[in-house]
Specification:
Helix content: 40-55%
Oligomer: single chain
EC number: 3.1.4.52
Number of strands: 21
Keywords: c-di-GMP, Cell membrane, Hydrolase, Membrane, Transmembrane, Transmembrane helix
CATH topology of the largest domain: Beta-Lactamase
Bound molecules: ligand C2E
Subcellular location: Cell membrane
Membrane topology: Multi-pass membrane protein
Domain EAL: 262-514
Largest sheet: 8 strands, mixed, barrel
CATH class of the largest domain: Alpha Beta
CATH architecture of the largest domain: 2-Layer Sandwich
CATH superfamily of the largest domain: PAS domain
Number of domains: 2
Strand order of the largest sheet: 13-14-16-17-18-19-20-21
Distance between the termini: 54 Å
């Protein structure tokens, strides 16, 4: 993923990460507020049922008591008893006595005219016939509920069934066993009540919240306007929104931290290592006397996903500092083997020089990586050279150990950028080396009259004295190449011959050099075949 995409993804994640917790908390607080309001409504609905049961039980008791009294029907004593029973009861408004389904007398007295017994809406399990709505014939007044048992009935004011102390914004409705509305308080919305009777449920619509309770054949419905829960909603939001904001800030912080880390040079390099974005270019090394290509230096390049190539001096220092250089070295070794395995097997005189970092030298782990990579390839260890810089030699003891082990396996070890450090001579004396790469700053002076131009021949002489293969780096002109050859330098590398080349170009260069200058000697330069003066 390139930087732009990382930024886009990070911004998108941060926005989503900020919105989701806040939206979730708004949702949760809304639900909690709705739930709390519905609980409140359910409580009132429950209370209404308790109230209805009490009123019903009281009316039933009156009915059963008088029915069992055995007094002469409609006698003065009977009527007095009925009246007393009505006075004593809070629920019952009137009581009547029927014979042959005709009302003969009530708690008010003997009935004049023919009043027929009303039909029942439903009958309770204990045999009470309930008529939800009748108009009292004797006393007149508002419609009542009638409970009929044997020859008696009692009239109960429907309001007794919802006689509950209510909050102002709540409406209450109580429905009988047959689904008929018995009574209502605070004028609930008839359409809403009708729909809830049809499908009893707890819920919320555009204007109202509602809850129901069902028990003992009653259905109680309590409703309240949605606006009523605002206060509770605000309270929930005050509690939960800070939590949402905190989670949002945390997520945004994490996204910012991760994207910053991902976008940091180290983050990018880490990902590049994981994605194996490293390729190798090869800078030809030629025998100065014959100009035959005898090898190449493997130079790592970071090919970004957008195709751009990053030079090693821009990322090697960070890779060394962070330890990522170790897997990068591994990738270079593997690339060399897969790129040039066939060519190396076909031409035993060809070698590839791999650069080692300070950590590589310290750990020595690259040796087993090379061993595994070369396994079954047919490439000889002698064909893999190792280049170490003076910085890598500073821990001289571990460097000596690693170099000794490498040489024991047959690898050639060269000291790179020779002459640029403070202790080049000390390393030459103290370490078992095979080759010396003379830094380009010295090669630049060849053929010119500068203060340091006399140093270069001394470096070359020293290499001869110590039986080291000398390789001139940064050869830019034919004159330099010729002079160096005349001075006895075996190999040269530089823009005069070729710049670091992508694989195909290097292979083409190699074949072209063979074709032009003849076959390369199929021996490696530890032998005197290259014209090295021992
Ligand atoms: N001005 C001039 N420059 C020339 C000429 N001929 C070659 N060069 C450049 O000199 C550098 C030679 O590699 P180096 O001294 O090992 O220096 C290397 C080496 O220290 C390091 N490096 C490259 N690849 C690797 C690697 O795989 N592992 C490690 N640890 N370091 C590497 O990065 C350094 C820079 O590599 P490059 O940018 O490829 O730069 C290369 C090459 O492009 C010339 O005629 N004139």
């Amino acid at each position: 993923m390139n930087r732009q995409r990382v930024v886009i993804v990070a911004v998108a994640l941060a926005v989503i990460g900020a919105i989701i917790p806040i939206a979730a908390m708004l949702y949760v607080s809304w639900n909690l507020a709705v739930r709390a309001e519905q609980d409140r409504l359910e409580l009132f609905a429950e209370r209404a049922i308790t109230r209805a049961n009490r009123s019903f039980a009281e009316a039933r008791l009156v009915l059963f008591t008088i029915a069992d009294s055995g007094v002469e029907p409609c006698s003065p004593d009977h009527i007095a008893r009925m009246r007393l029973a009505v006075f004593d009861s809070r629920a019952v408004e009137e009581m009547g006595y029927f014979e042959n389904r005709l009302l003969r007398c009530t708690s008010w007295g003997v009935t004049e005219g023919a009043v027929e017994q009303a039909g029942a809406d439903y009958v309770t399990p204990d045999g009470i016939a309930v008529t939800i709505r009748i108009q009292p014939a004797v006393s007149g007044g508002k419609p009542m509920m009638a409970l009929h048992h044997r020859n008696y009935n009692v009239l109960v004011d429907p309001l007794r069934f919802v006689d509950v102390i209510l909050d102002e914004d709540i409406t209450l409705a109580i429905v009988g066993a047959n689904g008929t509305l018995v009574s209502a308080l605070n004028a609930p919305d008839p359409a809403l009540i009708k729909s809830i009777i049809a499908a009893p449920r707890i819920g919320i619509d555009e204007n109202n919240l509602f809850a129901v309770a069902r028990r003992d054949g009653w259905l109680a419905i309590a409703t309240a306007p949605r606006t009523g829960m605002r206060k509770d909603l605000r309270r929930q939001q005050m509690m939960l929104l800070p939590v949402g904001a905190f989670i949002a800030a945390f997520i945004v912080g994490i996204v910012y931290w991760l994207s910053k880390k991902r976008l940091s040079p180290l983050g990018e390099l880490t990902l590049a290592v994981q994605n194996r974005e490293f390729i190798v270019h090869y800078q030809p090394i030629v025998a100065l006397k014959t100009h035959i290509c005898v090898g190449a230096e493997a130079l790592v390049r970071w090919r970004r996903p957008d195709g751009s190539i990053v030079r090693p001096d821009l990322f090697i220092p960070l890779a060394e500092e962070s330890g990522l250089i170790l897997p990068i070295t591994d990738q270079v070794i593997q690339a060399v083997v897969s790129d040039l395995g066939k060519l190396l097997v076909a031409d035993r005189g060809l070698h590839i020089a791999i650069n080692l970092s300070v950590s590589d030298l310290k750990t020595g782990r690259f040796l087993s990586v090379i061993e595994n990579a070369l396994d079954h390839t047919g490439i000889h260890n002698e064909q893999i050279w190792l280049e170490v810089t003076e910085r890598g030699l500073m821990d001289i003891e571990s460097a000596r150990e690693t170099i000794t082990a490498a040489r024991a396996r047959g690898h050639m070890v060269a000291i790179d950028d020779f002459g640029t450090g403070y202790s080049s001579l000390q390393y030459l004396q103290g370490l078992p080396l095979d080759a010396l790469k003379i830094d380009k700053t010295f090669i630049d002076t060849v053929g010119r009259d500068t203060a340091t131009s006399s140093v270069t021949p001394h470096i070359i002489d020293m290499a001869k004295t110590l039986s080291l293969v000398a390789v001139a780096e940064g050869v830019k002109t034919k004159e330099q190449a010729d002079s160096l050859a005349a001075l006895g330098v075996a190999f040269g590398q530089g823009w005069f011959f070729a710049r670091p080349l992508p694989l195909e170009e290097f292979i083409a260069f190699y074949h072209q050099s063979k074709h032009q200058y003849g076959a390369s000697p199929d021996v490696l330069p530890r032998m005197p075949a290259y014209g090295m003066v021992p």
